Amino acid sequence: MPDTIPASENQLARFLFAVRHVERRPATDTKRGRPSRWSREKLTEAASLLRAILERETLGRVSVNSFIGQYLPLLRFPQDVTDALNEGEINLHEASQLARLTPERLDCPPARAKSARAEVLRAHLLSHGSQNSLRARVKEILGEVVSVSTEQMANVVQKVDELLEIDPSDKRHLFYEEMKRLFYAMRQIQPEDVDDESLDQLMAAADQLSNAIYSIELKRRKKQVSKMNV
Question: Are 32 and 59 in contact (CB under 8 A)?
Answer without folding.
Answer: no
